[in-house]
Amino acid sequence: MIIVYFSQSGTTAQAANELHKLTQAAIYRLEPVKAYPSDFSTLADRAKSEVEQDVHPQLQDQKLDLSGETKIMLGFPTWWHQAPMIIASFFDNYDLKDKEILPFTTSGQSSIKESLPSVKKWAIASGTHVGAALTANATAAITKFVNENDL
Ligand SMILES: Cc1cc2nc3c(=O)[nH]c(=O)nc-3n(C[C@H](O)[C@H](O)[C@H](O)COP(=O)(O)O)c2cc1C
């Protein structure tokens, strides 16, 4: 298993690190070529226009090798009630056929359920299967998920 995640302001990175500590799985952070702005309203505008215009922002080439992996925990912040469009770029850039994606999100309050339609749409297009999903806003929820899914 490998943990692959995007995090703009560090919260999803923290959740990914908790998963890493519990599972010992390898961990990778996705980075956009064009950095997202830290100012909230500029970021919110860009995130929204990427959704509206179906922009798949370019990923930095990180030489991420997923060939030996069957399970990928895929983390991201919830943006506008779905996964950020950089997650679509992840599905574009890697051969994920026959792998299982376990999505997790951090958010103000949104559940992972809000992001599942976007993730499933991109997963289906890449021949990937979406498995169990986690709202990773609390350590207790993360621990429970790892135990219940035998990760
Ligand atoms: C552009 C934008 C849109 C957001 N939309 C939502 C949302 O729809 N629902 C929610 O609960 N939180 C939303 N948030 C809050 C983030 O999901 C939350 O702060 C997240 O933990 C940030 O993760 P990060 O530090 O890994 O980037 C939004 C934040 C931003 C910047």
Automatic annotation (TrEMBL):
PANTHER family cross-referenced by the UniProt entry: EXPORTED PROTEIN-RELATED (PTHR39201), FLAVODOXIN-LIKE DOMAIN-CONTAINING PROTEIN (PTHR39201:SF1)
Matches recorded under InterPro entries: Flavodoxin/NO_synth, Flavoprotein-like_sf
UniProt xrefs under Gene3D superfamilies: 3.40.50.360
Transmembrane domains' residue ranges: none
Pfam family name, one: Flavodoxin_4
Protein name: Flavodoxin
Domain (Flavodoxin-like) ranges: 2-137
Originating organism: Oenococcus kitaharae DSM 17330
GO MF annotation: an example: FMN binding
